[in-house]
Amino acid sequence: SSLLQLTSLESTMKNSGLARHGLLWVAACCALAISVPRASGFQQPDKAELLKKARAAYYSLKNEGMTGFTCNMAPNWTALLQTQGVTDPAVLEPAVKKLNELQFSVTVDGNGAAKVTHNEISAENQRVAEGLKQIYSGMEQMTTGFFQTWSVFVVNPPLPEPGIEINLENSASEYRISYNEGATKVGVNMGRDYAVSTVKATTADFDSVIHPHFAQSGKGFLMSGYEAQYEGTGGKDKTDLQVALDYQDVSGMKLPQKLNLKGSYNGTPFQVEVAFSDCTASK
């Protein structure tokens, strides 16, 4: 109807800037997809023993035998649009009703790589169609970017496997590990209890820092969230992220239940909350 056309996505995009900005929150989410390399080891026996103990201190889906899982995903559209400045109920409510027609699911393989699928809903006009394309693309980028970071800490322990040369420094309160992964320089700070407090990665194109948080799962440290900063060369494309996670038990394994991500991209704030439901997992 004409009322729906005026108060649905077209009006929302016009008033919130979603079409103009292309959902900036998705660009921020995928920034960290390349910021934490997957390392693979070292040689010195003393270092090997330290990292063996440290790796054993973490909950690992790979150690649990996970070969993949699939979940439905439901973004909190109300919260997302409100962070984009859409607060007028006459605009917000029809837009949320329209967006709730979207159905997303994610399939994650045994290495943590994610693939997003979705349905497609009708668009009243070209402006709405373009906005929907941005949402489809944005959800895919956000989800795959998140799982690439998450998998480094949850699918595998966030420490090198045997096979790569590392430098190890000790202090009274922590261990400092540094190594090269290809052209990327990586630095990890780890407490005496083996909890990683900082991961830094430096390349020719970007610098990134992640500060993870952990909860005890009964089988080791399980990442409960993180803060991260990403900055491109020359101070361009600055991203700040704050991520919080809740988990659910699926087939005896810890899988995400709710993701809350907020921050800013080049000074523009964003926030998105996603619930994961109807999950199935394989071992």
- What amount of the residues lies in strands? 35-45%
Distance between the termini: 48 Å
**Overall spatial form:** globular
Class from helix and strand fractions: alpha+beta
Along the chain, the helix and strand elements come as HHHHHEHHEEHEEEEEEEEE
3D architecture notes:
- The protein is α+β, with helices and mostly antiparallel strands and 283 residues long.
- It has 8 helices and 12 strands.
- The protein has helices spanning 2-7, 9-16, 18-21, 24-31, 45-56, 77-83, 89-99, 126-154, and strands at 68-75, 104-109, 114-118, 167-170, 174-181, 184-191, 196-202, 206-216, 221-232, 239-250, 253-265, 268-282.
What key phrases describe this protein's structure?
283 residues, alpha+beta, twelve-stranded antiparallel beta sheet, 12 strands, 39% strand, globular, disordered N terminus
Describe the secondary-structure layout:
Blueprint: H1 2-7, H2 9-16, H3 18-21, H4 24-31, H5 45-56, E1 68-75, H6 77-83, H7 89-99, E2 104-109, E3 114-118, H8 126-154, E4 167-170, E5 174-181, E6 184-191, E7 196-202, E8 206-216, E9 221-232, E10 239-250, E11 253-265, E12 268-282
Antiparallel strand pairs: 1-2, 1-12, 2-3, 4-5, 5-6, 6-7, 7-8, 8-9, 9-10, 10-11, 11-12
What's this, in brief?
The protein is of the alpha+beta class. About 30% of the residues lie in helices and about 40% in strands.
